[in-house]
From TrEMBL:
Species the sequence originates in: Viridibacillus soli
Entry keyword Nucleotide-binding: yes
SUPFAM superfamilies to which the protein is assigned, alphabetical: P-loop containing nucleoside triphosphate hydrolases (SSF52540)
Top-level division of the source organism's lineage: Bacteria
Domain ABC transporter: 3-231
Pfam families xrefs: ABC_tran
Transmembrane annotation, as ranges: none
Keywords associated with the record: ATP-binding, Nucleotide-binding, Transport
Name of protein: ABC transporter ATP-binding protein
Family per record: Belongs to the ABC transporter superfamily.
Origin organism lineage: Bacteria, Bacillati, Bacillota, Bacilli, Bacillales
Keyword Phosphoprotein set for record: no
């Protein structure tokens, strides 16, 4: 099972939303990580054949997805970034409706829907209308609808948007559990969403794929470049703009900082083990780190 992306480009006049992206995805979980506006959603829309690329192609097991058509959609599950459902439907009604659109037998669908509602923790509100759902609850309905046809390829665009920490942990568990026979691509700008589940991380910046490696490989490349130290408040404010800052904790006039530097920034600085959050700051800066 292979999803192959070959020189995929999406151009709008002089602007590249995606530029010359080439990679191969096989079974496992992939985290697509990048800041807002990096091209993650555009790439995902191309992968689900909603958007035709300006250049390049996507193939599944050697055949172009645009030619596979319905046969490709039969093995595909997709959660778009913007998902709302139909507000007048209950969660159960909506999922049964989507199941019918996907051609799932009604008897099978009823059992499948109830199982998925339990999986995403919505069994107790399955007869409640979607218009009364919170953003996080609606997102969980979206995750359930993406899983209805037991897809071999699962594309999730910002699936944890609106989820609280316990719901995000639940989702990570679900993805780990179902990933044995699937290609799962999870797009996010939230580092912790993929830190514990991704087999490989794809870093995308300004539409270009700049890295595709296992988390351990990315972390190993940053060994010896992550430092912590304590500064007084005045020195910190004076030097802040010159630091590649990951974190700063203020306490009683002093600041404990975590920074990235390829050389010792100060004689009191101590090297520490890199985390995926450090990788994010190294490539993208700190503005979107969560």
């Amino acid at each position: 099972m292979m999803l192959k992306i070959e020189n995929v480009t999406q151009q709008y006049r002089d602007v590249y939303a995606v530029k010359e992206v080439t990679c191969e995805l096989t079974q496992g979980i992939y985290g697509l990580l990048g800041p807002n506006g990096a091209g993650k959603s555009t790439l995902m829309r191309i992968l689900v054949d909603v958007l035709k690329p300006t250049k390049g192609r996507v193939t599944y097991n050697g055949k172009e997805i645009s030619i596979l058509g319905e046969n490709y959609r039969d093995i595909l599950g997709y959660l778009p970034q913007e998902f709302g459902g139909y507000s007048h439907f209950t969660a159960q009604e909506f999922l049964r409706y989507v199941a019918s659109l996907k051609g799932i037998d009604s008897r099978v669908a009823h059992e499948k829907v109830d199982g998925l509602l339990e999986l995403v923790g919505l069994c107790n509100v399955k007869k409640k209308k979607l218009k009364g759902f919170s953003g996080g609850m609606t997102r969980r309905v979206g995750i359930a609808q993406a899983l209805l046809n037991d897809p071999l390829i699962l594309i999730l665009d910002e699936p944890t948007a609106g989820l609280d920490p316990s719901e995000r942990i639940r989702l990570r568990g679900i993805l780990s559990e179902i990933s044995k026979d699937k290609i799962i691509l999870l797009s996010t700008h939230i580092v912790s969403d993929i830190e514990y589940v991704a087999n490989e991380v794809l870093l995308i910046k300004e539409g270009e794929l700049i890295q595709k490696k296992a988390p351990k490989e990315l972390l190993a490349a940053l060994n010896g470049q992550v430092w912590t130290m304590v500064m007084n408040e005045d020195d910190f404010l004076k030097n802040k703009q010159h630091l590649k800052l990951v974190n700063a904790s203020h306490l009683q006039g002093q600041v404990e900082i975590r920074i990235i530097s390829d050389k010792e920034p100060h004689e009191q600085a101590v090297t520490v083990e890199p985390r995926l959050e450090d990788i994010y700051v190294y490539y993208f800066g700190a503005n979107d780190v969560v």
